[in-house]
Amino acid sequence: MNTFEIKEEFLLNGEPFKIISGAVHYFRVLPEDWYHSLYNLKALGFNTLETYIPWNVHEQKEEEYNFSGQFDIKRFVQIAEELDLFVILRPSPYICAEWEFGGLPAWLLTYKNMRIRSSDPAFIEKVSRYYKKLLKQITPLQVDQGGPVIMMQLENEYGSYGEDKEYLKMLYELMVQLGVTVPIFTSDGAWKATQEAGTMTDLDILTTGNFGSHSKENFKDLKDFHESKGKKWPLMCMEYWDGWFNRWNDPIIKREAHDLTRDVKEALEIGSLNLYMFHGGTNFGFMNGSSARLRKDLPQVTSYDYDAPLDEQGNPTEKYYALQKMMQEFFPDIKQHSPLLKTSMNIKDIKVTGKVSLLSIVDRIAKKQESKYPKTMEELGQQYGYTLYRSYVEKDSQKEFYRVIDGSDRLQFFFNEEKIATQYQEEIGEKIYASPITGSNQLDVLVENMGRVNYGHKLLADTQQKGIRRGVMSDLHFITDWEQYSLDFSEPLSIDFDKEWEEHSPSFYQYKVEIDAPEDTFINMESFGKGIVLVNGFNIGRFWNEGPTLSLYVPKALFKKGENEIIVFETEGIWSETISLEMEPKFKKMDKEEE
């Protein structure tokens, strides 16, 4: 059994220990690939694994807990232990991580008077109930109980959000009460203001910094803060950013390998670090986050490649080999091994076998809920995906205008099943003109939740409730009597491809392919508009011809030997008779520079 302590240095079994860690998120990598990623971390000579723990995957529905399969955090940590890696866990209620709502479960938004990330008793009660389940999974894995876990995080970058010290103290007491015995830490920007706001040094909680360059300056700021509190703690960068995330309609962000290795070496000369990310992985399903802006939030793409040492697939990049060489020189006695490599497959021109319009089958694939006024996704018991709102209106004049009041994030407006408008955030609320026929007219509004913000001031606001929040107006009055259909793709769909298909309408497209020897691949989506892809029923994520990514990664584990089904749900009416599986990702050339 090992011991781990924080004195003036990190001490493992009483001896100085430099933490050389890499971030791999179990929730962004399928379980079949965990060993591959963690082996490559160990093979580089690193000694520690770090991962966030997102609340929203473990309690997606209130009081329904899931710690199995893709979300088996215990098994993930055990694989790290089998590879002789120590583990840092970050189980705070909020994680950021460019993850949907920063890891907070969207059902919290149904409690409209609750203040999240605060000492509000209503919020603490929800956290406490979840922690009782979560910590039962991870406390037996602590180093002083024979496991590999050496530290756990209290809250994440709280100094960039609030200064509710009572909240931090409540979290600390809750963790200790529920069996956390390893050292607890916080991670914030290295400068004084965020360090001061984001921690409680009177509880002897280690403060760490997050940065990706200027190591000497950032570590000096961190050391100065420690000394101002009378502490002689070891210096650690908990997130040393080796790349960056990407947003739709922005260029891919890259960082040169030689630049990274130079800066990492500088950091290791001073203290310990955790490379964020080591393997980024994929925002499967609807789990991408969004960057908050005043009017128009900027959702992130499905790929979380992050320009990391392992690419989205998990294979070594130029950065990996550059770090390998630097580590050999800096630590001559370090043990390194050749990394594992995954292969990919290429299957061209898979023909479409079925197509059907959403409006032809929505009542067969989604449960109808009725209400006087439209309800938000959360009020409908839905958290992610799309909601179709339907009502019927009578003709009052030859040309009439309609307005969706306070909706999010992106909508398509149909009148008698003809699309007449698309609006996105800053446009929602503008007039939409239609020409009714005599009698009843069918009005449909398809609203897409493109991802809740994961960082910043909007975590407080009701702007993160998705769907239609106020209502739909005809001229100057609100329309009543609505039917609502939730499309979250959480359950297998039975789609009748014999029903009607209309060009230029949101539709499902089916492709079937025989595979003798499944391997990883990338589905080329450059001939499609916007939507999601299901591979044998598994939602691999969003695509959009806005770019910069024009393909979706599919791990080998999602395929089976024999016949496989690929279903594309496409909302813009832009599709292809064929689809292709390719060995490498596809990107769109972007002209504008990253802001």
Indicate the CATH class of the largest domain: Alpha Beta
Mean pLDDT: 96
What is the number of E strands? 31
* Strand residue percentage: 25-35%
Q: Based on Cα principal axes, name the global outline.
A: globular
CATH topology of the largest domain: TIM Barrel
- What structural class is derived from the secondary structure elements? alpha+beta
Within CATH, the superfamily of the largest domain carries the name: Glycosidases
Radius of gyration, rounded? 25 Å
Please give the count of helices. 10
Gap between N and C termini:
50 Å
- Main beta sheet, described? 8 strands, parallel, barrel
Helix content: 10-25%
Tally of structural domains? 3
Q: Looking across the biggest beta sheet, what order are the strands in? A: 4-5-6-7-8-9-10-11
| Assigned CATH architecture of the largest domain | Alpha-Beta Barrel
Q: Low-confidence stretches at least 5 residues in length (pLDDT < 50)?
A: none
Domain Glycoside hydrolase 35 catalytic: 9-329
InterPro entries: B-gal_1-like (IPR026283), BetaGal1-like_ABD1 (IPR048912), BetaGal_gal-bd (IPR048913), Galactose-bd-like_sf (IPR008979), GH (IPR017853), Gly_Hdrlase_35_cat (IPR031330), Glyco_hydro_35_CS (IPR019801), Glycoside_Hdrlase_35 (IPR001944)
EC number: 3.2.1.23
GO molecular function, one term: beta-galactosidase activity
